[in-house]
Structures are given as structure tokens and as C-alpha cells.
Amino acid sequence: MKAALSDRGKRPVVIMVPASLHEKWPRDFKVFVDRAIQRSDDKALRAKPVASALEFFRLIDSEARNRPQIIFLKHGAFHVQNIDQWVRLALIKRAISGIHLGEKRNALPRFAADLLRTKSSYNDPELFAKLLRIPNREWRLVINEHYRARPDLQLHDTPIPEAIQKVLDSSDIDVAELRDCLRELPARESAFINERLERARRAINDALRTMWPSTLAKARFRSPLLIMDEAHHLKNPATRLASLFVTDEAREDAGTITGALEGSFERMMFLTATPFQLGHHELLNVIDRFRGVAWKTMPHYTKEQFEAELEALGKTLDCAQHRAAELDKRWASLREGDLVDKSGREVSIDDWWQSAAADSKDRPERIQMVMRSFHQAQAAMKEAEAPLRKWVVRHLRDPMLPGTNVPRRSRHSGRALSLSLEGDGGLPVGDEALLPFLLAARAQAVVVREGIKAGRATFAEGLASSYEAFLETRRNGSSHEDEEQELKAALPGQLVNRYVEKLTTALPDEAAYAQHPKIAPLIARVLDLWRHREKVVVFCHYRETGRAIVRHLSAALERQLWSDAAQRFGLEQEAVRKAVADFGARFDTNGGMRQPLHEELARRLAPYVELSSEERNHIQDVVRRFVRTPLFVARHFDIDARSGESTLREAFGTRDLSGISLGEKIDSFLKFIARRCSHPERKDYLEALSRMQPGIRGETLRENDDDLSQMKGISVMPNIRLANGLVKQETRQRLMLAFNTPFFPEVLVASSVLAEGVDLHLSCRHVIHHDLSWNPSTLEQRTGRVDRIGAIAETVRKPIEVFLPYVGGTQDEKQFRVVMDRERWFQVLMGADYRTDEHFTEKAAERIPLPVAAARALAFDLSVKSACDARKHEESPIGARQTT
């Protein structure tokens, strides 16, 4: 913010963000300006999202007083495909300059809208004729004058940025082919006009590809600061994004411009949540992009110094990773029988490590080699830590909730998902499901014997997830997944095929699919959380598993709802259904509950003068729509009560497992909507809630329920929603907003599409990883959706409950063992190869897990709070530490 406000030349700060976050950054920025900035002068800080390089150049060309101080620029903005109709028209004008076209020149404006694909907006031949005659720099005035009565078609910036104009005025583009195509255009409509137009469009695109590198090379500007979000995308220097910052002369002949943004930024800061998922060479590649900084603005630090330091850092990291890899290899030699004390008694891995680390000289030579490798790796990692601290700052959240001794997270593995089972280990497989899992284990053993070429046994992973997912892996290969996988499913041999076919026939009847060893305890756990009025997000890998959970959970939740209600009110189920519906109707226009609810909400809304009358009415409508539903009435209200006021007070006083009452939840929601949301964000939240259907959905679904259009013919409870890759981005955004309120949905079943760039933390502190992952960062990203600053866990001072269920003795347990071990090594072996083939994972599952103490001793400490020599803390002249 300081860089944006204090720059004397009013040059904008540029924040480059991936497409998936291009809306989130500006939205969060608006909240920051409204809620965090105190000085009135600073509130004038303006930002603008920009999707293409053309928009960016136009902003740079505009007058300083009209430019925003911050520009949110998409990563892919500099791709040639983002060129608009005006530049294409200017290219046509350049192509026809100086050639004889006869009457075709006059006919060209008639085809221009077709040629440029602007018939739905700019389609007036008279305008195009005028633009082709006048200088490009006059276009904006002419276009705006032409559309005086159409403000929506008027332009705010010059249509042809100066960098483009320089190329058009030069000889750097080849328009010969485009000229030939334009000569072929008829003077009037003809039978082959569409084919000729298409050829001309292709010629325009070819000319643009030739012209674009020269354009980027001529587009010179200066900014005080670049912030690159998701900077791990810079790990490959050959990519279009990474090549923008550093000139690579070896690639110039390929027709690809490099270094287009080199020297444009006086300071650079890169952001990434996963620096150590990168290989150390990839991390060096990311840091190397700092080479594109404006060195002339840095009198006390030179490019040559930077390159020398980076080379030295590379050698140090090479040594550290060599030692870490050697330790990894030595560690793999350890076996369960090695975990004994000096008397030969079996001990835990942590106790064994404490003893072995203190004194290993009496241990077998193999273990002494492990300990020597550990100490060598530890020394090498510490040696690399000091120079790395100059370029990388890593923030690790406190393991305790703020101001408490309560752990921030509480992890529950394996059978801990079950409400009835005790002890350690995985979820058991009952007798009725034993045969399918035994057959899967046999088939999997055959795949392992096939070696590396066998690939993944997806049938075993699918079976551990749900019966439905197993059947889908048999039918459609990998189309059932939302996550990208490096390896395809194992190609079945005849023996594997026989086992899998037997497995398919051994599955229980479809009516018993809900009794799957992992599905059944999941449903029971989610129901228990729901009965305690807690929200929960369930992550799945398989789309079919997500649909199965929604289906089975809806059926179980509906049964539980009416069973509890019948018991609570002492009525038969049919009678209680009618009584609950009748009570809900009392919230309608003439009902006895409408006025008490209105008055109660009006009292709670009174302190929030920020809300308009229209917004207050909208909130009243939203709350009323949800509290009148059977799901609210049956759980919160006394349907026999005669006094609306008293039963409302009682309902608002009911508390959840976190100790928060319904009334307190509504108060928090009102405070959040009124005082933490900007006006547009407030509108988005209320719109999202208004579009949530509070009633049970069946086959007839509205357009805004595209998340459940996958559940054809299935009645789905309104508090359960599904978010996978088949759901529109707009719908996913709406579900996310609604989930962050006290209202529906209460259960969100999600795939990897909600694992990044999404906030689900305001009303939820329970996450279940129904399907695990081979990659520990995937699990961390998922959990991070509910573990964020301002999470409900911080408010109630209770941990974020993380469930990692797995079925014991199956592929599920193997995946759990592998990913937990990889989690320990995550900060030690940078860029570890997370292979998923059976040959590799079978061996990985047999490894002795790295003790927590050992992992901590090896990990880089790159936090700003570390006690380190002051000289090692010296700020980097251009790196992340400078601007942090």
C-alpha cells in the first residue's frame, strides 16, 4: 500500500494473479480499503483488475490522474489470444494501406463486423468506414461520438495503445498474407463469403502472432513494485509467464519474445504457499526471475552480485539436497525390528529416535550409518538456511489458537471417524464386505508383481472410497476424477481382470452401498455433527463418491430428522411432519410467528446503521426463509408453544458443539455483513442466500441448482450441497458464500475444485478428508480452506477438527501410511517425486516414519521471528524480505 500511495510519478503497483483468483484479489482489496485503512486520504486508493495486455497498456498510456494505483493483472494477460477487435481492425487498416482495392475498399466496412466477430456490439459499417480513413489516435473520440446515446459502447481508454501503434508504424510485421486474403473479399455478398472471411481471420491471427513479440518489446514502462501471486508458476523458465522477466537470447530465433517486462519493476515480491513442493532447482529458477528487476534503481546492489550469490546458493542447496537424499536412502533401510532399546525391547519410533540420537555407537553399523547421514544432512541444511533466508521468508502459523493453549488443529486418523470404535488403526471391514476387499488385495498384489509398468491400481483406490466409485473406475477410467494424476490406471492383465470381475460380482446389493466400511461411519459422523448444529466440509477425490455421499447422507439425515422430531414431540412421523409444516407456515404473512421474528431481527439489526432499509428487508427475508424450513423448525422450535416470543427466544438460545447459540450466530452474521463487508460483497452474500433453495430438491431443479443436476431422480436435503468439477464456477462461488453464513448449506461435499483459493472458515471448523491423497500438500490445501485468519475456531477457541479416515488393511491404509511419511519429509526433500505406481508405493508404505523431532531438526527455519545473527537477517535488496 505504501508503494502505491507514495510513488511520485503515480506509477501503478502491479499484482499478477492466476485466473482463478482474478476476482478474489479485487474483492478482498475492497474489504481491506473499507475496513483496514483509517486515514481518509488513503481511502482514495484505487485498484483495477485487468485481464489482457491491451487493457494494461491502455492504462499505462492514460493520464496519471486517471490511472489506478494498483493493477490486478492476470498471469495469462500477455497471450496473443487476448487481443481485441480494435487492434485487429488497426491491423486490417495497416494491411490495406497503399494497395489498390477498387470498390472492395468501400465494401470492406460492410464485412468488418463479421470479420471481427462484433455483430452483437459494434456493427455499424459507417463507423468502420470512418475509422479506416482517420488516424488511429483519433479513434476513441470518433467511437464515443458515434455512440453518444450508448454509454455501454463508449471507450474509456485509447483503443490502440502506444506500444501497438509503434509496431504498426514500423516495418516489424509481415502483412502480405493478410493483404492477399483481403483482396479476395468480394465487393458484395457471395456464396463463398463465409469461407473467405474465415481465411482472413486466420491471416489476421498469423499476423498478430508475428507482431506480438515486437509489441511487447516496445512496451516500456516503469512500476515501483511487482507482486507475483502463486509464484511457483515461474519454476520453468521456458514458460510464457516466466520468460516475461528475463531475456533469453537463445529463444529469440524461435519467434518468442522474452524479457518483455525486464527492467520494468523497481522491486519484486513473489508469493507462494508451497515453496518446498518445488525442487531446489525449481526454487532457484523462481528466485532467478528477480534478475528482471530495474537494476539502475539499486545503486548498492548489482546484477553481477545477485548472479554470484544465486550461483553460490545453488551450490549450497545442491549439497543440502544431496545429503537429504542420501539420508532418505539410508532411512529406507530401517525395519520394524530395529526399533528396540538397548535391552532389545520394542519401543515407539519417537522413543527409539531420542535414544539413538543421543548415543548410537552401540547400535548396529547400519543404524550408525543412518545417524551419520542424519547429522551430515542436518549440517548441510543449516548451512544452506542462512543464504536462503535472504530470499525466502516463510510464515508458519502458531500451532496454538491466538491467546490460548488450545491446539489450532486436532487430527483424527483412521477409525477415529467412527462414533463407536476405540483404539488406533483403520476402519474395519465387516464380514459382508470382506470378500470384495480380499479380491481387491489379490488383484493389487498381481499389479505389484508387474513392477513399474503396472501403474496405479485405481480399482483398489475406488473400492476404498465407495462401491459407486469402484464401479465408475471400471466404466470410465479417469473421467471420474477432478484431480490430475501423473499415472494412468494399471493396465489389467488376464489374472488381474479375473479378480476384478469376481470383485464386481461380489459387491453387495445396491441397497447396501450405504454400509460401505468408510461411507457408513462418515454418514454417522456427519449426522452427529449436524445434530450438534456444526457445519462440516467433506473432501472427495472421486465424483461418484461425492454423489454417493450426498445421496446416502440425505436419506439418513431425513430419517434422523423425523425420528428425532417424533421422539421430541411424542407424535407419529406423519403427524409430526404435518405439525412441523404447520408451524413453518406461521412465519408466512398472516402467521403468528412472522411478527415476533420480525421484531427480534429488527432489534438485532438496530445497531447497524451501515445497512440500508432495502438491505434490512433483504436480511429479514433471508432469515425468515431459512427458519421456517422443517430442518430449522424440527430442531430449534417448540411446535406446541403458544407464545411466539418465548419459543423464538428458546430457539435462538440453542447452542452447538462449539458453545455458540443460534442467536449469537445470527448476531455475528449481521455484524459481518454490516461492518466487515463492502457494499458489493454484502450484496453477493445476500444474493447467494436468496438463491439457496430451503426446500427438499428432487428431479425438478432450478437452473441455479446445477450442482445437484447430477443427482437425477434423487431427493436431496436442502442443507447438503455438492461442489465438483461439473459445477459451474458461479454456483461454486455462491455455495462458498452461503456456507460461510449460519444458514444452508450445513454440509458441503467437495472435490479438489474447492481445495485452492476458497474461504470456508467463517462458520465451519470440521473437515473430513474422505479420500486421502498421495501428496501431503493436497491435504494441507484442503484443510487450509477452514484454517484461515478469522476462522470460527479462533472465535470459539476450539480446535479445527481434521479427520483422515482410512479402511484398515487395504489400499486406503497404504495411502495413509505413505502420505503421512511424505508429510514428515516434505520440508526436507524439496520437490520430492510423489509417484503413485504400485511398485513404488508398496515399498514406500513399508518405510519407518520419520520422527517429528528429526523432521523439525532438518527443516529450514525461514521465519522472521527466528533468533539469527543480525548480519544473516540483512534485508534482501530486491527479494521478498524487502517488501514484507
TrEMBL record:
<dbReference type="InterPro" id="IPR001650">
    <property type="entry name" value="Helicase_C-like"/>
</dbReference>
<dbReference type="GO" id="GO:0016787">
    <property type="term" value="F:hydrolase activity"/>
</dbReference>
<protein>
    <submittedName>
        <fullName>DEAD/DEAH box helicase</fullName>
    </submittedName>
</protein>
<dbReference type="GO" id="GO:0004386">
    <property type="term" value="F:helicase activity"/>
</dbReference>
<dbReference type="GO" id="GO:0031297">
    <property type="term" value="P:replication fork processing"/>
</dbReference>
<keyword id="KW-0347">Helicase</keyword>
<keyword id="KW-0547">Nucleotide-binding</keyword>
<dbReference type="InterPro" id="IPR038718">
    <property type="entry name" value="SNF2-like_sf"/>
</dbReference>
<feature type="domain" description="Helicase C-terminal">
    <location>
        <begin position="665"/>
        <end position="856"/>
    </location>
</feature>
<dbReference type="InterPro" id="IPR027417">
    <property type="entry name" value="P-loop_NTPase"/>
</dbReference>
<feature type="coiled-coil region">
    <location>
        <begin position="303"/>
        <end position="330"/>
    </location>
</feature>
<keyword id="KW-0067">ATP-binding</keyword>
<dbReference type="GO" id="GO:0006281">
    <property type="term" value="P:DNA repair"/>
</dbReference>
<keyword id="KW-0378">Hydrolase</keyword>
<dbReference type="InterPro" id="IPR049730">
    <property type="entry name" value="SNF2/RAD54-like_C"/>
</dbReference>
<dbReference type="Pfam" id="PF00271">
    <property type="entry name" value="Helicase_C"/>
</dbReference>
<keyword id="KW-0175">Coiled coil</keyword>
